């Protein structure tokens, strides 16, 4: 479980394991397959070799026997043979122990070896009967009747014009056959050769292996070969239970069998040695491939580990060093890309640091501008408040003038009815005119003050417009962070325009009031003159009163217009006051936002300062 967790957490271990598996596993798999194939092939080769060995021995022995038979047959082709012919033949053809000539009666007429004891007649012997009847005879391996040796006896009929006139006999020993076996089988120490005649009697064998010859498995094999006349290889156990590999060959002309056997351990010793060599070669190749795979994996992962260390350093904010790995492969391209990324990050952090400083400075300027705007709006509100009070005073005066005009009209009408009290009324009118004159002058003075206040409002509005423009410019410099400020600046500019419009209306109304006041002053002056002349021109009193009544009526209308204008100015002033209060709120918001922007800029500086470049 720990190994699986370790593999899941390490790409390096996964790749090394994969590389080892895709290199070593096929090698071992192919090695095992090759091992099994070679084992089967070499086992088959051992079987085939032993089979071929037995077959080769059988062929050579058969050829040797056939050759001797042909040699005897060649000699038997001569109708009349002497002992000298037999000696010459024996000298010419090596391997013959004895050659002898018998007539039709079975009596020996000539023999190559002198001084031997022979029977007077061999007519009853089976070998003679076979030969005299026209058949070639080859005996089993037996003790010779003529010499004290084990021999193989040949008997061939001698013909003269297809008439059998005698028998030619010859005997050979097994030395030549043993030499054939010895020359054919080089490893005689590990291989045991058994030449078996058609009765199952061993002709050639190791005397120490008597128990093997008499063992049941061996006898079963011999009987199988002799009965079936088969050639092949068979694996069996000897009398000691040892696995034996036996190859056998049936010599058809002789009816003999040749068996070559060796222990399976010795037979397959070379196979096992070769297989072990192959196994060690496979293991060696596997180890070599594993070492090469580890070397390759190290060449891949050492720079990756170095890159990983640098990435951890960069993740902690340290951009002070680049990765120094020189390679021409994909890892080198990855390192170059990583170094370029570090350079880009350094440039971004530097730009961010510069922009942070600019934002901080801009926010501080904006905070100061907002504070100044707030103070200016506060002062403007106070000025507007005073203006409203002054306008209210003007309205009160206009109301008084209006009331006075009504009284004057009534007095004029009474003067028409009571001419006797004209002088008294004229005196009163004169006094009232004087008061009206004084009030008109005061109203003119107040109008001037209104104009001055209105001019002040206009100047303040211009300043607000200028501040709004500056705020818009600063917000544009701030980019996305200044979008909110730009909206606020636009609202302030709009309010300033409304204020300018309102002040323009106030100036117009004040102009009308001043014009009316000027008319009032003229009328009052004229009334004063008429009053002075009242004593002299009493007859014109009625007409003067008419003119006064008309003038007062006009004055009343003008005062009504002035009162209406004053009321409008008062309402606009209230609107201006409300706008200024809104501007104060906006200025306060701009100030707060500027303060927050400054704090954010400081925090951004703290974050940027964590990076080491």
TrEMBL record:
Belongs to the methyl-accepting chemotaxis (MCP) protein family. CDD domains: HAMP, MCP_signal, PDC1_DGC_like, PDC2_HK_sensor. Residues 436-463 form a coiled coil. It is a multi-pass membrane protein. It is found in: Cell membrane. It comes from Orenia metallireducens. The chain crosses the membrane at residues 15-35, 275-294. This is Methyl-accepting chemotaxis protein.
